[in-house]
Amino acid sequence: MATPPVASISSHLRAPPPWPPPKNISQRARVRCSVLAPSGQALEAAASPRGAEKSPDWVPTSDVNLHIQRLCRSGDLEEALGLLGSDGVDDRSYGAVLQLCSEVRSLEGGKRAHFLVRASSLGRDGMDNVLGQKLVLMYLKCGDLENARRVFDEMPQVSDVRVWTALMSGYAKAGDLREGVLLFRKMHCCGVRPDAYTISCVLKCIAGLGSIEDGEVVHGLLEKLGFGSQCAVGNALMALYSRCGHNDDALRVFEGMPQRDAISWNSVISGCFSNGWHGRAVENFSKMWFDGLEIDSVTMLGVLPACAELGYELVGRVIHGYSVKAGLLWVHKSLERGVDENLGSKLVFMYVKCGELGYARKVFDVMSSKANLHVWNLLIGGYAKVGEFQESLFLFEKMHEYGIAPDEHTISCLIKCITSLSGGRDGLVVHGHLVKLGLGAQCAVCNALISFYAKSNRTKDAILVFDGMPHRDVISWNSMISGCTSNGLYDKAIELFVRMWLEGEELDSATLLSVLPACAELHLLFLGRVVHGYSVKTGFISQTSLANVLLDMYSNCSDWRSTNKIFRNMVQKNVVSWTAMITSYTRAGLYDKVAGLFQEMGLEGTRPDIFAITSALHAFAGNELLKHGKSVHGYAIRNGMEKVLAVTNALMEMYVKCGNMEEAKLIFDGVVSKDMISWNTLIGGYSRNNLANEAFSLFTEMLLQLRPNAVTMTCILPAAASLSSLERGREMHAYALRRGYLEDDFVANALIDMYVKCGALLLARRLFDRLSNKNLISWTIMVAGYGMHGRGRDAIALFEQMRVSGIAPDAASFSAILYACSHSGLRDEGWRFFDAMRKEHKIEPRLKHYTCMVDLLINTGNLKEAYEFIDSMPIEPDSSIWVSLLRGCRIHRNVKLAEEVAERVFELEPENTGYYVLLANIYAEAERWEAVRKLKNKIGGRGLRENTGCSWIEAKGKVHVFIADNRNHPQGTRIAEFLNEVAKRMQEEGHDPKKKYALMGADNAVHGEALCGHSSKLAVAFGVLNLSEGRLIRVTKNSRVCSHCHEAAKFISKMCSREIILRDSNRFHHFEQGRCSCRGYW
Predict the structure, then answer these.
(1) pLDDT tens, 275-327?
(2) pLDDT of 16
(3) pLDDT of residue 44
(4) Fewer CB within 10 Å: N-end or C-end of the chain?
(5) CA dihedral defined by 641, 644, 650, 656, rounded to 10 degrees?
(6) Which of these, 387, 392, 362, 390, lies nearest to 376 by C-alpha position?
(7) Residue 20: is the preceding peptide bond cis (ω within 30°)?
(8) What φ, ψ does residue 574 adopt, rounded to 5°?
(9) Cα distances (Å, whole numbers) of residue 804 to 777, 798, 810, 867
(10) SS3 call for 576
């Protein structure tokens, strides 16, 4: 059947153009009703002869056709379908019914009409083109794409481009973009010329596929066909290029368009934004504004996110104001209905991103609908970002009242808020709520839960959540690794990192930042270098934050060369980089370099912050560099940082370690709000600088303001130890016990050290044995304690027990055991430990180890070997080693060697009076009075004075201090009478007090008087007279006890049957029944 010309088809039977679709169906119906002929005219037309010439407005003569068309005009589809199977129904009636099915979207009616078409004579010889087109359009409008394509394929030839375009549009709407493109290719092969709408439709399909190659081909075709100047085609091209990321091409198309409509501008604005060109999006919006084009809500939706990303709050406010003025913001331009949901959500997003939560909240409160979960998430997240976690929780409660179910992002933000507020119980409630909602397996939610449990120090629960995740992303792994690192589970962090790597997960910079601190803490240098290599390979090394963490890792692993190399190769250093390098030099003991680095930091324009200043002060405190410390102090004052508590505490520590307690106290007094660190620093400083009484005075003052913590105990206990104040030490012990501080290893070790230095070795051992976790410091203190008390065999046994228990000794441990061997005369054992230290444990001996060995050789009478040992030392000996040998010369009466050694001592410390007195004693004991006189003149000529010695004893809660030759004590007369009786008894029993030993040529009358004035002897006498019988007498002396006092104490212990413990600057002496624990090794 030949296809009639389009003009011969009645207007009410002709299919509407597929592009654009009809805007108002009811209007078309009114037009149809207006063309109905009067009934008389219809009858005349029906009665006209069949062969009469048909006019363009020909009306069917068949009653059934006329009736069908009337029913179609009135919209009675069921009646029309009932008549459609009658005899004599022509193609126009079928077309009218199909048109009505399209308009009312009746797929069932259309299928019945299609069946009747096939059953009629019209469909037996193949589908007529006109009816076929109507069937295709009917199926497309009813949403049955499959039947539309089936009818389309049955048609012998489709030349109407509108049908091709409609079918293409149907595929595009259905999401079958590939088939839409293939249909366009088939149309091109069939020789059908596309129009502008066809080109627009296929471009949309190509844009959806992201096939830029096909798009460029179609672009060339439309230019060839002359469609390039049409606005709709240009808009489609821009959408294609923007969608494919070719924003430059989209802009070229836009700039080449002769005419642009609002859609063009909206397309270019949204395209710039979607490709990250936020600045150009705002710029194009400005051009559109100044060109006078009408700005609609679509424009607003495109430009507001760009303003948000750029932080253009002012531009956003202008757009907001325009939308209010133009009525675009309100739903149906009604204030009662509220703000349009789409525009309102974009405004909220813009204000939240710009940090204006107040404006965002105002817009949100007047929005027409509160059902947009994204807007709730924006506000909840915005408040959480600025730290207003309570407001975030309040919004979540309001959201719950509105009946809006949270998603994974809501819950993730909620958990972060609870984590920040430390609401552990609330977090568990939220977790349970998540399980009920079925969100417990969502990746983002699980990530937030892992972070919550990690920050709440519930790492086991975090691991349970992590192991139960069906799917993990890189954030899951990073959160878990970071959580283990922050909670001290470094081994687990490394295990997770290796597992993540082996499972093929992609590592990002956050992964490396999380695992490197664990490598640093475990000193895993090899793994750290592997991570470093990976960062170089992936380019992450260029990130300053990662380079800073690498600095810390290499510094912790003592790889100073790599630390310095990374620092010098850093393209961009921030204050953290410089601070890390200062810390690295401090760890390496390169304190002198810190001053240069701090100066270099200022020259490069990096202003030191609080952390840099405190790090530098710690370095200067470590090496007692008071000059540099004062320089940093001046910088802090000039930059207004001297009142910052962290800086003042670091300044106090620096001055304390440099021995300048006056300056430290001035800074302390100037602090308005002192914290625990402030008090502990000064108390510890007094203890460190042997100002024990000041330490106890400050501690008493602290009790009135703060409750001491475990660190305070470790600071005050050394003060009790330095005074040998057992009573005060016991008070501290009781306080620590009541507060539960004994669980702290540092407090327990300080208590053991206190008991050792107070002479209560048995109590120290009992406390040591009760320790559940003995560390290296605990063992070292106890070994040194046995050594101080002359119990070398016990020290060796304990040292061997330590090694058996799996604890490797360090340099301090070997110093303690060598000290013990020295003070017990265990020569062979001492050499054995000295060799083991070097050969087995690969510990290079330091000066203190050589000093112990020299003392050991001297105490065993090997002066010549000691002298040769000093000469063979690989490090330069200091004065203490030569002084030890000088004292040995006195004990063993080797005057010749003493003179040689004294010259070495005087070269190193020419101002120390004690060494001149020691040499004078050696001359006096050898009865070389001329040498004594010359030495006395030499001392007097230089204006040197002998340091006054003192001793003290604690009795009835009070400390009594005795100074040599001081007779001002209230019991001075009683003490003198007692000592005279002791001297008399010693002479009667044949004990020679050796009056020559330190009198530098005085006459015999002065000899006896001076012998009674030695401070340690006065303190022992006071103890005998004032402490009840049977009670231990504990005396402490600030220097070495002299021979006469040592002999007198031995004699008094026997004469009065009293046990005396005398602690001098070198060791303990236990006197009992005329014997001393030192056995002459002192």
Answers:
(1) 777 788 888 888 888 877 777 777 777 788 888 888 888 888 888 887 777 77
(2) 39
(3) 34
(4) N
(5) 100
(6) 392
(7) yes
(8) -110, -175
(9) 16, 10, 15, 35
(10) helix
The confidence score (pLDDT) of residue 816 equals 94
Dist CA 273 CA 281 (whole Å): 6
| Model pLDDT, residue 786 | 93
Q: Residue 929 has what pLDDT?
A: 83
The DSSP symbol for 742 reads G
Q: What pTM was computed for the model?
A: 0.61
Name 948's Cβ contacts closer than 8 Å, sequence gap at least 6. 963, 964
In three-state form (DSSP H/G/I as H, E/B as E, the rest C), the secondary structure along 253-301 is: HHHCCCCCCHHHHHHHHHHHHHCCCHHHHHHHHHHHHHCCCCCCHHHHH
CB-based contact 882:870 (threshold 8 Å): yes
Task: Judge whether 1002 and 995 are in contact, CB under 8 Å.
Answer: no
Residue 720 is given by DSSP the state H
* Cβ–Cβ < 8 Å for 674, 649: no
Instruction: Determine the angle formed by the axes of helices 1043-1055 and 1015-1026, rounding to 10 degrees.
Output: 20
Q: Distance (Å, rounded) from C-alpha 67 to C-alpha 89?
A: 10
User: Phi and psi (nearest 5°) for 954?
Assistant: -105, 125
Query: Alpha-carbon distance 273 to 502, whole Å?
Result: 39
Record the tokens describing residue 473, joined without a space: 């992303």
* Token pair 């106290």: residue: 665
Dist. CA 613–CA 807, nearest whole Å: 37
How far apart (Å, rounded) are the C-alpha atoms in residues 587 and 581? 10
Distance between CA atoms of 310 and 276, rounded to whole angstroms? 10
- In 3D space, the residue among 383, 316, 302, 388 whose CA is nearest the CA of residue 354 turns out to be 316
Contact between residue 601 and residue 576 where contact means Cβ atoms under 8 Å apart: no
How far is the C-alpha of 492 from the C-alpha of 903, rounded, in Å?
Answer: 60
Q: For 171-220, write each residue's pLDDT tens digit.
A: 888 888 888 888 888 888 887 888 877 777 877 888 777 777 777 787 77
pLDDT for position 47:
31
